[in-house]
Every structure is written in structure tokens, then in C-alpha cells.
């Protein structure tokens, strides 16, 4: 009489992955894939392949490609929010440089995030680019508004400073996307390109 085979002696027994864990893996993969190809240009098959599942399985967890894109974009905004919270929590006015406050600490943390996570930056830009889709536009607007409110709560800064903070953040996004450190009109790289590249 045969007995069931035990996996105790196998080095790498196949383990079941829960739907919740697989969903997280798909969102993570989607963040990277959509960052590169955007909402319209990214096949769901690429995301499925990155995780090692079949495309139909993706649609058992997400009703549509749009739903998966929205989940990825929401995760990106959550990452920024968490980055700001951590920076505000770690800020110590006693050891801070003169003139620095919670808002400048959050700005520094955001610069570090842009440097370390290029796909995160690109996903942000892809989210804004996809706002011709009404459902995506509504979620991006809501996520952006909640992020602004979060920074207001953390910093206690005036509306004028909050506006400047987010304007500068967008300036940083453009600079990071172009791979430059500075977008100032007098920057060395800008002067060099202006002198060598004729207008079209």
C-alpha cells in the first residue's frame, strides 16, 4: 500500500501563495511596469509575467487594467505620504540646521526618494498623463488633495508655504525626470545646451 510522499526531504517544496500576498506582488510589479509604459502602453501580460502568474489570474484579483493601475498609483501616493510622516517624526529642532523646520525636512526626504526610486517618479508622471481618463483623474485629484492636507497637518505651515512646497516638488519632479539637479535659468547645463542647440 502506498503512502503519501512527504515534502520534508525536499529542498524547495512548492508553497501556496495567498491571494492577498499575490495581490501585493502584482501591485508592486504594476508600479514598475506602468512607470515605464504608462496606463495605455503597458500590457497586463507584462505585469503577470513579472510576478510569474497567468494573465487570467490577474483579472481574478483586479476587475480591469484600470483598477490595477489605480492600485499602483494609490500605492505611490502612500509611499510619499509615509516618507513625509517619517521625516516629520524624525525631525529634531534642537539638532536641525539654522532655518530648517519640519517642511524642509520633508523636502529633503522627498529628494532622497526621487534619487533612490526612479520608477516611483515615473509612475507619478504617468498618473498625471493618464488623467484624460475620468476615473483615473478623479482618483489622482483625491490622492493629491489628501497628500496636501497631510503635509499641512504635519508641518502646520501657512497656505503660502504649502503652495511653495508643492510647486517646488513639481519642479524637482521635472528635474529628476530630465536627469539634472537644477532647472534654474542660469544653470551651467542649461546655458551650455542653449548655446549649442538651435531652436526648431
Your description of this structure?
It is a single chain. By secondary structure, this protein is an all-alpha fold. The protein has a domain at 65-196. The chain has 9 helices and no strands.
Descriptive tags:
single chain, 200 residues, mainly alpha, 9 helices, disordered N terminus
What is this structure, in a nutshell?
With 200 residues, the protein is mainly α. Helix content is 71%, strand content 0%. It has a domain at 65-196.
Give the SSE map:
Blueprint lengths: L18 H23 L2 H8 L3 H7 L3 H26 L11 H15 L1 H12 L4 H22 L3 H20 L9 H9 L4
Number of helices: 9
Roughly what percent helix? over 70%
What Rg, in angstroms, do the CA atoms define? 22 Å
- Unreliable stretches: 1-13
Measured between the Cα atoms of the first and last residue, the distance is: 83 Å
Q: For the residues shown, what is the average pLDDT?
A: 89
Order of helices and strands: HHHHHHHHH
Assembly level: single chain
Profile the largest sheet. none
What structural class results from the helix and strand content?
mainly alpha
Global geometry: globular
Strand segment tally: 0
Strand share of the residues?
Answer: under 5%
Amino acid at each position: 500500500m502506498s503512502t503519501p510522499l512527504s515534502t520534508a526531504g525536499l529542498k524547495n517544496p512548492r508553497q501556496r501563495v495567498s491571494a492577498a500576498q499575490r495581490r501585493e506582488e502584482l501591485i508592486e510589479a504594476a508600479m514598475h511596469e506602468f512607470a515605464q509604459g504608462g496606463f495605455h502602453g503597458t500590457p497586463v501580460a507584462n505585469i503577470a509575467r513579472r510576478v510569474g502568474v497567468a494573465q487570467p489570474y490577474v483579472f481574478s484579483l483586479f476587475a480591469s487594467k484600470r483598477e490595477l493601475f489605480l492600485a499602483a498609483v494609490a500605492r505611490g501616493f502612500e509611499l510619499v505620504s509615509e516618507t513625509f510622516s517619517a521625516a516629520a517624526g524624525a525631525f529634531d529642532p534642537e539638532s536641525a540646521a539654522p532655518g530648517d523646520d519640519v517642511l524642509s525636512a520633508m523636502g529633503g526626504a522627498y529628494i532622497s526618494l526621487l534619487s533612490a526610486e526612479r520608477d516611483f517618479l515615473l509612475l507619478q508622471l504617468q498618473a498625471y498623463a493618464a488623467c484624460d481618463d475620468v476615473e483615473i483623474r478623479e482618483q489622482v485629484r483625491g490622492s493629491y488633495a489628501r497628500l496636501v492636507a497631510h503635509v499641512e497637518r504635519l508641518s502646520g505651515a501657512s497656505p503660502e508655504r504649502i503652495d511653495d512646497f508643492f510647486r517646488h516638488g513639481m519642479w524637482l519632479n521635472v528635474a529628476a525626470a530630465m536627469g539634472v539637479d537644477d532647472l534654474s535659468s542660469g544653470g551651467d547645463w542649461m546655458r551650455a545646451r542653449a548655446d549649442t542647440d538651435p531652436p526648431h
